[in-house]
C-alpha cells in the first residue's frame, strides 16, 4: 500500500525459499496490505517459520514454551514506557496501546495518550485492530478443520451453498484459498470498499453474486477483504452460531481475552472508530465512514488481551493459562504460505535481521486507526501496537513496533517518524509552487495569446496540453492511488489516506485550469479583434481591410469636395 520506511512494514517483495535445515528464509520483502488498506501496498505477504512445522510434526508441544534466550536488558517495562512516550511527544501521536510478551509471559502492556473522545488510554482501553482480525478468523476456521467439520482443500460451496458468483470458476474456490487469499477474488473485479456496504455476513456474501473473478482460483495472490467475509460466514453456517458468538466462546474466552469482541461495522467500534489523520506534521481529528467489518477487520480488543493472543501464537496454540485453543500443527499451517506465495492465513513475513528468522506479522488499517502484530520466532517475543492515526498518513503502529523490536534485539530504540511528516513539507512547497506558477501563467496569458494569434490552432493547443495533466490527475486520483496500493477506493477515502497529497494535486489542477481558462479567454478576444463586425454586415479585419460576406471590399477614393469638377 504504498511506501513505508519501517523495517517491520510489509512493503517489499521477496522470494522465500526453504533451506536445507527446514527453515524458511527470505530474500525479498513483501508488499504492504492493509486496510484500504493499509501503505496495498504500501502491505504484506511472506510468511512462516517452518521451525513451528517441525515441532508440530514431531508430536504434541508442551503447554509452556521452552525457556527463551535471556531477556535483553533493553526490553523492560520502563524502557518501553520511555520509548513510547518519547515517540508520542516527537510525532504528536494522540494515542496508542502496546503489548509485549516473551515466551508464555507478559513483559508489558499499556496505553499512552488519549482517544479521539479525550479518554486516557490504558492497557484495557478497547481499540479496533482492523485486519489483525484475519488471523483470528483463520484460527476459528482451523478449529473446525480439527473437528473434522471443514476440509481446507474442499470447495467452499460444499459448506456454503449461498456463495455464488457470476463466474463458474468460483465453484472451485477452496477454504484454504480464502484464507491465504489466492481465491481469484480481487478489488479489481469487485471493489468492495468503493461499493455500498453490507450489514450482515449473509448480506456481504449475497452482494458478490454479480461479481466475477480476477484470476483462476489458486493461481494468483490478491489481498481482498471479502475472502474473510466468506470465511466468517462459513463459520456461522457450519456451527449454526453467529460469528461473533463463536469467536467469544471458542477463541476469546478460552484465551482469557474477556474484553475482546467482533463487530459488524465501524459504527459498532468504540467512538465509531473516530481517530486522526496526519497533515503537514499535525494531526487532524476525523470521523470514520461506515464500513462493514465482520470477519475481515472487525475485532475490538485491548492491549492486555492482545498480549494473551500473542502468547498463544508463540506457544503453538496454548494460552498463558495452559489452555489449548488449536493444535501446534494448525498454528504452523496458519503461519506458512503456500508454495510460491508470500502470504499465509492472516500472517506474513517481515524483514529478517542478521541470520535470524524473519518476523511473522500482519498490519491492520482503517482510515483513522492502524495496528500491527509481530512475532519474533528466535526470541519468542510478541509485539502488538494500535494507534489512532489512519493508514499511510499515520502508520505510527509500525514505527512504534520498529522501536520495540530494537529493544527486543538489544539495541537502543530509534524513533522512526511516519514518512509523511517529511513528505508533507515537500508537498506543501510543491503546492505553493503550483499556485504561484498558475498565477504567473494567468497574468502572462495576454502576451501568450498575442504571440499565438495567427499561428495554427493545433500549435496553441499542443502548448497548452501539459496543463491538462494535473486536471486529469485530480479526476483520476482515486484510481491512481488504488493502482499503487493494489486496492480500490473512492476519492473521499484518498483524502483520509494522504490529505497533503490531495491538496497538492488539487492546487496543481486549479492552477492549471486557471492558466487554460485565461489563455482561452485571451485567444478568443484576440480572434474577435482580428474580425470585428462593422455596420451593414461589413467586418473589419486586423489589417484595416473590409470585407462583406467574405468578399473583397470595394475601394472608394475620396477626391475631396469639387474634385474632378
Compact overview of the structure:
The chain has helices spanning 50-58, 77-91, 133-146, 175-179, 201-206, 226-239, 243-252, 303-314, 328-335, 396-408, 420-443, 445-452, 457-464, 468-475, 477-485, 491-497, 499-530; strands spanning 16-18, 24-26, 95-102, 105-113, 127-128, 261-262, 275-279, 282-286, 299-301, 348-349, 360-365, 370-376, 381-387, 531-533, 538-541, 546-548, 551-552. By secondary structure, it is an alpha+beta fold.
Describe what this molecule looks like in 3D:
This protein is of the alpha+beta class and 565 residues long. 36% of the residues lie in helices and 13% in strands. It has helices spanning 50-58, 77-91, 133-146, 175-179, 201-206, 226-239, 243-252, 303-314, 328-335, 396-408, 420-443, 445-452, 457-464, 468-475, 477-485, 491-497, 499-530; strands at 16-18, 24-26, 95-102, 105-113, 127-128, 261-262, 275-279, 282-286, 299-301, 348-349, 360-365, 370-376, 381-387, 531-533, 538-541, 546-548, 551-552. The strands form five sheets. The chain has a six-stranded antiparallel beta sheet with strand order 4-3-13-12-11-10, with helices on both faces. It has a four-stranded antiparallel beta sheet with strand order 14-15-16-17. A three-stranded antiparallel beta sheet has the order 5-9-6. Helix 3 (133-146) packs across helix 7, helix 12 crosses helix 17 (499-530) and helix 15 packs across helix 16 (491-497). The model is unreliable at 1-66 and 532-565 (pLDDT under 50).
